[in-house]
Amino acid sequence: MRERRGRDVLKLVAFLLLVAVAAYIVFFTPAGALFRTPEGRKALVGKLDTLVQAAGALGPALFILVYALGVLFLPATPFTIAGAVIFGKFHGMLYNLAADALGASAAFFLGRYFLHGVARGFLETRMPWLDRKASEEGFSVIFYLRIFWFPFIVLNYAAGATRIRFRDYLLGTVLGLLPPVFIFTYFVGAMKEALAMYRRPADLLTFDLLFPVLLLVFSFFLPTLLKKFRHGREL
User: Which of 172, 200, 207, 215 is 20 to 30 Å apart from 20, CA to CA?
Assistant: First the structure.
């Protein structure tokens, strides 16, 4: 028992070191400017675009891989913007969603390996209701948190630390991310197209730009509507 606790603590320390390295890169190195500033994010898009173009037909697969690896410890938003700018509204949405699902899955298993041992004892003694709810209603928990734009990286690792089944986690992630990823990618892609033809402010008042804004407003009501629908079916 004591030996197992020792291994769990060492895993936690190793994970915290990885987080510290990622934080140092983002906040204290020139490379981190790619994620901190608008100019950096624009440069990141350019670098990824060059990489994708050089890969030819394998460009989308390479983008998905880089995106998925990047969001293990780095913010997802710059990668999502890059997907929309490089591939457009619709293809960008598909590639962004695939990369998010792949990255979230990898982070889940990392969280299960590095954090589950320490978290298990804490949850079982201090918050058993949370661990039980994650195990029994994992899909609903993940789905609603994704819909509400809960911090991507935090949820990935936190879910891995609980008893939630991967199947429920993955399904909740894909379906829960579908609306926000579609809305954000569509908006960025439409903004790129509008700015390319921009002549006057009225040019920005197009359906392609207003549509994702309306969807964003609707998405905040979606969890409530789904909850009412589920209760209605159970009655």
Answer: 172
Task: Indicate the number of domains in the chain.
Answer: 1
Question: At 113, phi and psi to the nearest 5?
Answer: -75, -45
Residue 105 tokens read as 């899955």
120 is in which domain, residue-wise? 2-234
Q: Is residue 102 a contact partner of residue 76, using CB atoms and an 8 Å limit?
A: no
Q: What is the pTM of this model?
A: 0.82
Which of 126, 113, 128, 127 lies closest to 161, judged by CA? 113
Closest CA to 159 of 178, 176, 139: 139
- Profile the chain (235 residues) by mean pLDDT over runs of 10 residues: 75 90 89 85 91 94 96 92 92 95 96 84 64 78 86 91 91 91 85 63 59 66 62 55
Q: What are phi and psi of 45, to 5 degrees?
A: -60, -45
